[in-house]
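Design job #97: recover the sequence.
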């Protein structure tokens, strides 16, 4: 691979409930096409060009928790608190309420509808 540059291009999520997953990520500011909930594959381009892709997966296989973690920068401490409040108010699991981390960031952890960890920070 000496003559090519390797860069991360996409993050894929297998969603048990595609509509619920898209609603969750819309609360974090991501946009998806109208009617995306009914598509067999959905993606959005993130700042910097990385694509976040969703594919419905209605299998009963237990995939467990922690298959991936995504981190969302929320601008400032108030943004972390507001994002956490909006997500938990909408019924999503709050793993850890906002706190001032020893490394200097305001931080919180929630789970998306498939149990994936989502970090909120500033």
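Job complete. Output follows.
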């Amino acid at each position: 691979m000496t003559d090519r540059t390797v860069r991360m291009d996409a993050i894929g999520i297998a969603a048990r409930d595609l509509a619920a997953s898209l609603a969750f990520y819309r609360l974090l500011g991501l946009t998806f096409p109208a009617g995306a909930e009914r598509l067999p594959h959905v993606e959005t381009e993130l700042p910097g060009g990385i694509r976040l892709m969703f594919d419905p997966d209605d299998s009963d296989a237990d995939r467990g928790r922690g298959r991936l973690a995504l981190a969302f920068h929320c601008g400032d401490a108030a943004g972390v608190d507001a994002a956490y409040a909006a997500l938990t108010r909408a019924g999503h699991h709050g793993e850890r309420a906002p706190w001032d981390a020893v490394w200097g960031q305001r931080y919180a952890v929630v789970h998306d509808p498939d149990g994936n960890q989502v970090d909120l920070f500033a």
